[in-house]
């Protein structure tokens, strides 16, 4: 007999993460080899554009892991859109990932009303799409080979 609970529990979440990680490592020779290498460490990567007053005009946050750059967030203040700032942030993140962290690929998710065309113009290819996530919106997963 089991009792189901829906309470948020940080300790249980960490336990679950650890156990899944152990199972994945045991179940995959590729994951096991990765975990034994320096590429197994997930490292945050952030690029910021500050205006003349030191305020954030744009930013990119992500992480590198397993020779991949994963872009989580890319935002440019509306006053600065269209001047190439987003392209500069993305290029800098890709440069750091490629040259400083030995990444060979990049991936990200974006919604249809956000920036799929922006990323396609910068060499990203659509690898997947989920319609109606959330309802009425399409989410795209895009990847790029880094130089």
Report on the structure:
The protein is built from 4 helices and 6 strands, in the order ααβββαβαββ. It is of the alpha+beta class. It has 2 domains: 8-40, no CATH class; 41-145, 3-Layer(aba) Sandwich (Aminopeptidase), CATH 3.40.630. A 6-stranded mixed sheet has the order 1-2-3-4-6-5. α1 crosses α2. The longest helix has 18 residues, at 10-27.
Explain the layout of strands and helices.
Blueprint lengths: L9 H18 L1 H7 L7 E8 L5 E10 L2 E9 L8 H16 L4 E7 L4 H5 L4 E7 L6 E8 L2
Parallel strand pairs: 3-4
Antiparallel strand pairs: 1-2, 2-3, 4-6, 5-6
Helix pairs in contact: 1-2
In total, the number of domains comes to 2
* SSE run: HHEEEHEHEE
Assign a percent range to the helix content.
25-40%
Summing up helix and strand content along with how strands pair, one would put the structural category as: alpha+beta
By CATH's scheme, which homologous superfamily of the largest domain applies?
Gcn5-related N-acetyltransferase (GNAT)
Strand order of the largest sheet: 1-2-3-4-6-5
**C-alpha geometry:** globular
- CATH class type of the largest domain: Alpha Beta
Share of β-strand residues: 25-35%
Arithmetic mean pLDDT: 96
- How many helical elements? 4
First-to-last CA distance: 55 Å
Described by strand count, sense and barrel closure, the largest sheet is:
6 strands, mixed
Examine the coordinates and then state which fold CATH places here, giving the name of the CATH topology of the largest domain.
Aminopeptidase
Any idea what the CATH architecture of the largest domain is? 3-Layer(aba) Sandwich
Radius of gyration: 18 Å
Per DSSP E runs of 2 or more residues, the count of β-strands stands at 6
Q: Can you tell me the residue ranges where pLDDT is under 50 for at least 5 consecutive residues?
A: none
